Amino acid sequence: MQQYEITYKETGDKFYCKEDESLLACMRRNNNGPVQIGCFGGGCGRCKVQILEGEYHKFKKMSRAHISEEDEKQGIVLACCIKPRGSITVTTAPN
Ligand code: FES
């Protein structure tokens, strides 16, 4: 199975995410990094991050209460709703 390298911008820490798992599930296996764990369903907004580099696939609807269209254009997403499609650099989402 394909795996992709995930890098936390703040620390430079790297780990690998399988192509069939959400970024949040992968982060949980790797001590969470800059993200909080919540509902895993796209509704609570706790797992908000910003993707700085890399391709990803949005496989679950994100609540507009937490992620605006403008946010999405800037790579601000809910980690429980995306899967990597290549190496990704991720950081804490701006408030
Ligand atoms: S964990 Fe609740 S929206 Fe991602």
Describe the sheet with the most strands: 5 strands, mixed
Number of helices: 2
The top-level CATH class is Alpha Beta
Order of helices and strands: EEHEEHEEE
Record field, number of beta strands: 7
Query: Which ligands appear in the coordinates?
Result: FE2/S2 (inorganic) cluster
The poorly predicted ranges are: none
Task: Tell the overall outline.
Answer: globular
Any idea what the CATH superfamily is called?
Beta-grasp domain
Strand order in space, largest sheet: 2-1-7-3-5
Mean pLDDT: 93
> What structural class results from the helix and strand content?
mainly beta
- Binned, the helix content reads 10-25%
Distance between the termini: 35 Å
- Predict the CATH topology: Ubiquitin-like (UB roll)
CATH architect. name: Roll
| Percent strand | 25-35%
Q: What's the alpha carbon Rg, rounded to whole Å?
A: 12 Å
Count of discrete structural domains:
1
Q: Which keywords apply here?
A:
95 residues, mainly beta, Ubiquitin-like (UB roll), 5-stranded mixed beta sheet, two-stranded antiparallel sheet, binds FE2/S2 (inorganic) cluster
Summarize the helices and strands and which ones pair or pack.
Layout: E1 3-8, E2 14-18, H1 23-29, E3 48-53, E4 56-58, H2 69-73, E5 76-78, E6 82-84, E7 88-92
Parallel strand pairs: 1-7
Antiparallel strand pairs: 1-2, 3-5, 3-7, 4-6
The protein binds FE2/S2 (inorganic) cluster (FES).
